[in-house]
Amino acid sequence: MSEVKDLKPREDRLVKPPLYGLMASFDNPTDVVAAAREAYDAGYRKINGYSPYPIEELSEAIGFHRTRLPIIVLIGGIVGGLSGYLMQYWVAAVNYPINVGGKPLHSWPAFMPITFEMTVLFAAFAAVFGMLALNGLPMPYHPVFNAPSFDLASRDHFFLVIEAKDPKFDYEETLRFMNTLNANEVVDVEV
Amino acid sequence: MSTAVEKTFAAPPEVARLQRPALIVGAVFLLLLVAGIFLPHGTGQNQVPGITQFFRSYLLGFVFWTGVSVGCLGLLMLQHNIRGAWGMVIRRVLEAGTRTLPLMLVLFLPLAIFGLPHIYEWVNPQGFHATERSIEIINSKRGYLNVPFFLIRSFIYFALWIGLMYVLNLWSREQDRTSEHGLIKKMQRVSGPGLGIFILSVTFASIDWVMSLEPEWFSTIFGLLFVAGWNLSAFSFVIVVMFWLSERRPMNEVLLPRHFHDLGKLLLAFVMLWAYFAFSQYLIIWAGNLPEEIKWYLYRTRGGWGWVGILLPILHFAIPFLMLLSRDLKRNASKLAAVALAILVMRFIDLVWIIVPEFHKGAFAMSWMDVVSPVAIGGLWLAYFAWQLQQRPLVPTGDSRLAEAMEEHGGH
């Protein structure tokens, strides 16, 4: 009969499951962007927005664009360019010097196309793998799907989650804060 | 569209106030340029009559500003094809830019009527003390390089550009009045082949007006270098204008950081495209190292011009490239406009580096008139542009896609 017990309201449970965060749902993009801005301004940083389509302002509001990906790509590009150039320099001027058309062994114009291509290649690799490393994909399980109405995120609803691991997170206070955000409802998200 | 909406998006009064000072600067500098005809230029062996120096400098200013006008036409057709939101907000500036083409046609006439024997060796080989070998080469190219054919071709370019400018501006005007949806398709249908015409006509124009300064030299990528360069000039100019407008009503309520972000991304693409073409030409000619080709670079990579040749990849490519990588810079209208203005200046220096060494056989020399001429023509050009910009609302009010382009959450 233990299953029946589990169906009782959460407040009566003896052991509460650990909390992933609090989720507010909205039925229009303007409200979710405004809510995200307020949450960010209130000092929350572990926040995430979910919507049926990309909303640039939402990414902006939660500070998503402040990721380390651009610097990873830049480093990838620089490493690629340098290794491309140095490889050619080493081959053409050090390891196997051949006089081509009377030009200097270290002829930089001739090295440029490969240097450029290596820059692009390494920057692209850094972008793909850096992105995967930072966002943790592929991700077979994510707690937000425990929220009962979250499937609407791929239809016509917009969600904002403040994660419990945010240093400013305090269940009572954060719940009170999220109830001021003009949301349709605010629910717990279990891990 | 109602006149109320047209009024809402009317150009700010500052545009009208810009007209007179621009015209005065243009006129004063034009007088200076004309006065230069009566002064001697250069020293010793390099001394040339004032009229020769006048047309050398005039060509520089003429090609630079024609590039902005024609570049606007190319960008206008590009945005009709792509239909991006960024194109919607800059379209009226582009259209006003294209409507300066009749002015450039008028400014071409002095060059066409009086100027050719003073600057083109192939018109007047004896006057240029051409060697026998040069005369032989010029004679073998007579079928193409002769004055009547040169003039016919030049007027064909202007006819094509002004024709495209005319229909696109006419339909855009009609769209304001009727909001007819079919006009979007109509403009797009002209702009597709129009871009092909644009690339071919700019290629031939650059060959005729600039490459033929050295009739023995040829480069197959030269035309594309001007296609990219003129688009870059025009786009930099448009970004500066958009920033200026974004500080004033009504455009301060229309333009958002994301619009400038999109413009910045395209500016980065054009900077890279120019560098790609410029380096491709250098790499191929440097690798081939053939006497008839390499001469062009020997003039430009040694002595004083060599320093300019080093500055170009740094200031025209590397620094703008690195700065434009930054997302914050692209979303900041004033910083983006500062970069665009610097690129516009570098566009002129690039043109100087391409044209001027030819006149001095590689010697590092410039006349004060080379700087006066672009200001003279630029002043007239800006006055004409400001006048044209006031003629229509600053956004295409009859275009059904405008609302989406202006929305806060709109697309690109």
Number of helices of chain A: 6
Category from helices, strands and their pairing of chain B: mainly alpha
Radius of gyration of chain B equals 22 Å
Give the total of domains of chain B: 1
Q: Outline of chain B, from the CA principal axes?
A: globular
What is the makeup of the main sheet of chain B?
none
Summarize the main sheet of chain A: 4 strands, antiparallel
Compact overview of the structure:
The complex is a heterodimer of chains A (191) and B (412). By secondary structure, chain A is an alpha+beta fold. Chain A has helices at 2-6, 29-41, 56-61, 69-95, 108-135, 171-179; strands at residues 19-26, 47-50, 158-163, 185-190.
Provide key terms for this protein.
heterodimer, A: 191 residues, alpha+beta, four-stranded antiparallel beta sheet, 4 strands, 13% strand, elongated, B: 412 residues, mainly alpha, 16 helices, globular
What does this structure look like?
The complex is a heterodimer of chains A (191) and B (412). Chain A is an alpha+beta fold and 191 residues long. Chain A has six helices and four strands. Chain A is elongated. Chain A has a four-stranded antiparallel sheet, covered by helices on one side. Chain A has helices at residues 2-6, 29-41, 56-61, 69-95, 108-135, 171-179; strands spanning 19-26, 47-50, 158-163, 185-190. The model of chain A is unreliable at 1-5 (pLDDT under 50). With 412 residues, chain B is mainly α. Chain B has one domain (14-397). Chain B contains 16 helices and no strands. In chain B, helix 3 (50-82) crosses helix 14 (333-359). The model of chain B has no long low-confidence stretch (mean pLDDT 91). The A-B interface holds A 29, 55-57, 65, 70, 74, 101, 103, 109-110, 112-113 and B 258, 279, 282-283, 286-287, 289, 325, 327, 408-409.
